[in-house]
Specification:
Aminoglycoside 3'-phosphotransferase, Chain: A, domain 2; 10 strands; Phosphorylase Kinase, domain 1; three-stranded mixed sheet
Length: about 350
Amino acid sequence: MAGIPTGRRTWLDPEWQGSILSWAESQLAARGRRIAGDVEQPHVRPWSTAFRIPTTGGIVWLKATGPGPAYEGPLLEVFRTRAVERVVLPLVVDRDHAWLLSEDAGPTLRQTRPDGDGDHDLDAWDRILREYGRLQRSVEGAEVVEAMLAAGVPDGRSVALVAELARLLEDDLAWDRLTPEESAEGRAARRRLQGSMPAIAEAADELAGVGVAPTVQHDDLHGANIMVGPAGDRFFDWGDSVVGHPFATLNVTFNSIAAKTGRAPDDPVFDSLRDGYLEAWTDVAPRAALLRAAALARDLGCIHRALSWERAVLGLDAGEMDGFDDSVAGWLMELAGRLDGPTWAGARATR
């Protein structure tokens, strides 16, 4: 999928816009619908764009992605085949172009309050994380994991994750993208991680040994990627997802809730939300083992985020990244900082 175009120059090009909108019009016509108003393009990011299209049968959304997240459509087709619940499934997917056409699924959690602060609804988060845990359990097992990998979803299981970290630590380009103000800290973090690879590999092995099966891991689960319309809570925007340890989800989710609500990362509310989420796995391992796994997975989830950003900027020229140039190395710096935390006290990484 490396030949798929990306970037603002593509998304705002009138010829390209005409091509994708023509495709959407033909798909709608095949379903007895036509465009019935002005088409808007409210989302334009370096790695994807989305159009809001009013039709005679209601609002639809048209999404295009660059090559990095292009497996989102094929993954959703796996979900459809497996009758996975609580996901927003597209009307149609064009695999060759990485285009998706979907019905409007209602407001996001973030939009459920007039001020856009729906993320503050901790009761909703408790409900949503329990539902999400059950979704993850519904797509574990060798057969469905192989189907997701065959659809192009990245392999984020322990062995692959450690190997990818080693590769990123040798990737000068990722580290060269740090700002001058970050460069000294970045060099120190890179050295720290290189010296800590045995401890990180040991932690990844420990995580895999808990017995929680690999499954889909959304990796960008925040209040703007959860629909809470009449059909109930539904999850969408799977372009960052991986096949890996499910608990790594909590990295982005708890970071986002903390940022949106102004809570400290060690606020007791996160323990409560974590415990509700982990209930989906109480038949797999003792509570103490699940808590340890959740802590390890959150920290190792920084590697997932670095890899996700690497995919997001794939195919983009310098100057097209909207200030996200340093995100790959930035998440690895975050991991280096967490090596001083209590999760790693039993196997202190090399300084």
